Amino acid sequence: MENFWKILRKTDAKKRLSVPISFLRSLPPFKLGSHAVTFEATDEKGEAWAFQCSIRKRGQYPKPVLTRGWVAFVKSKKLQVGDKVRFMKHKNRATAAISYKVRVEKEIKVFGAIFGYARI
């Protein structure tokens, strides 16, 4: 089950990943009064990454972002502006356990033109 994908922009690649509001429904519930929730996602190699999703404390629009853990992930994967990231939630039918996966695709350029994406 795919939850969302995004082509990285400058802020996404350098500081934090802004995510769609609809992604909040896929995350563990926020504790009462809390503005952040931590979840773990495994990459294509099976390595676990802990991310924190935060929302604004005030205002009508929560503007969810991944903060803690995100920059380390970007550096480890050598992600850049234009690369693609996917987050997926999976529910095990037998145990009802929830898990998350994160996948990245590097932008492929040929003679300066975007040719496509390759999974890494």
Automatic annotation (TrEMBL):
It holds the Pfam family B3. InterPro entries: B3_DNA-bd, DNA-bd_pseudobarrel_sf. Residues 16-106 form the TF-B3 domain. The keyword Nucleus applies. The keyword Transferase does not apply. CDD domains: B3_DNA. Its main location: nucleus. Keywords: DNA-binding, Nucleus, Transcription, Transcription regulation. GO terms for molecular function: DNA binding. It is found in: Nucleus. One of its GO terms (cellular component) is nucleus. Coiled coil: none annotated. This is TF-B3 domain-containing protein.
